[in-house]
Design goal:
19 helices; about 400 residues
């Protein structure tokens, strides 16, 4: 009976996944665009190069601050409303950033970055939206397919950077104008999204667990830790990469190519990550992701040849994919539907809080430790060790823990 029901029950889910894949591809292309040029533009505007990656940090901070309000808005008015708010934030942030570049004003440019964080936060909810209408059997694949949409964004974004970065007298101004266009076009996709608004809870509706009770649930706690570490370390290293590549004597185009390889590695495995999770379990795939992240750091520490950058960043993307999708799948299966708004907003608040700290650390480690780009790049990658130790220890503890009845 189950086999007969699942194809019908997932018809809506598959349509929503298709819409969200396109959104990830089109709207998601703005994130690699901004991550390629953000640090370089910040370096040209900031009075102190230690603050070069502060624009990226402000994006992540904006994402962290937006996570809970966006989750509340989606719980009240539906996913579509939250995603439209996200595109409005992305377009507004790009417009302010472009104005900051035009003025040569670092504070105005930073304000634009903060608004861009609204879009980044909304994009983070695409994966949860994919799970909303999916059956238990289809849910891991739905999440991984949506993240796979980032494959196209990995190509579109950096290529747009190559076309636009030097297209105007003011460097990178054309890139930010292109980001505005991406948001205006991409918002139309959400007209085709078909996710019912959550029902208004009645007086007798279950209240669910409190935030403290949710966070002290072992599987939720470990999922949040592993998601935070996977995303934070990916951001820590990727934020510094354009600075390291250019600082070590290569061109901006080389940095864009390295970021392309990295983002492809982030999303290409998503076609089979869900199948691997279904077969081997989220815990094992998360553990594999953490091991691959460690391998990325090891390769980066071997030297600063262009090949090292490519291999390290590809491994970084692959490790993020396994770690983050595994953690997301575990989290989605560990709370009830009526706890969705509370838990998902709290999760992304914590995840992007960790990513904000990583991003803030990235510029200081890269530009202000050791005195050379090579030494700074080594410091960035050595900083991965304590975080991986924390996540690995938490995951081992969970796997050795007696199963709950």
């Amino acid at each position: 009976m189950t086999d007969a029901v699942l194809p019908h029950s997932d018809t809506r889910a598959k349509r929503n996944v298709a819409v969200l894949v396109l959104a990830q591809a089109v709207l998601g292309s703005q994130m690699p665009m901004i991550f390629v040029v953000g640090g370089l533009a910040g370096q040209s505007l900031a009075s102190n190069i230690c603050f070069a990656t502060l624009p990226i940090s402000l994006i992540v901070l904006g994402s962290m601050l937006s996570a809970t309000p966006l989750s509340w808005a989606m719980q009240r008015w539906g996913r579509r409303a939250g995603f439209v708010i996200g595109t409005a934030g992305g377009a507004t942030g790009a417009a302010i950033g472009a104005y900051g570049l035009y003025l040569g004003s670092f504070p105005v440019y930073l304000l634009g970055s903060l608004f861009t964080g609204i879009y980044m936060s909304a994009q983070g909810f695409y994966r949860f939206a994919a799970a909303d209408t999916a059956s238990d059997a289809f849910r891991p694949r739905a999440i991984s397919y949506v993240l796979a949409g980032g494959l196209l964004s990995a190509v579109i974004g950096p290529q747009l950077v190559k076309l636009t970065a030097e297209s105007m007298v003011i460097p990178f101004l054309g890139t930010y104008l292109a980001v505005i266009g991406v948001n205006l076009v991409g918002v139309l996709l959400f007209l085709f999204l078909d996710i019912p608004k959550p029902p208004v809870p009645g007086d007798d509706a279950p209240r669910g667990r409190s935030r403290i009770e949710l966070l002290t649930t072992p599987r939720i706690a470990v999922a949040v830790i592993c998601a935070t570490v996977s995303y934070a370390l990916m951001n820590l290293v990727m934020t510094s990469t354009p600075l390291a590549v250019v600082g070590c004597g290569f061109e901006t185009g080389n940095a864009a190519d390295v970021v392309t390889g990295h983002v492809l590695a982030m999303f290409a495995p998503s076609f089979f990550t869900g199948h691997l999770i279904a077969r081997f379990g989220a815990e094992r795939i998360m553990g594999l992701g953490l091991l691959i992240l460690a391998g990325a750091g090891a390769v980066a520490l071997q030297g600063v040849a262009l090949e090292n950058f490519f291999v390290a960043l590809i491994l970084l993307g692959l490790g993020w994919n396994f770690g983050f999708i595994g953690a997301t799948t575990m989290l989605a299966a560990s709370h009830e539907p009526h706890e969705r708004g509370r838990m998902q907003g709290l999760n992304d608040l914590i995840v992007f809080g960790g990513v904000t700290l990583a991003s803030l650390s990235s510029g200081g480690l890269m530009n202000c430790s050791g005195g050379t780009p090579e030494a700074g790049w080594a410091s960035v990658n050595l900083a991965m060790i304590p975080c991986l130790t924390l996540a690995g220890g938490a995951l081992i503890w969970l796997m050795l823990r007696p199963k709950e009845a």
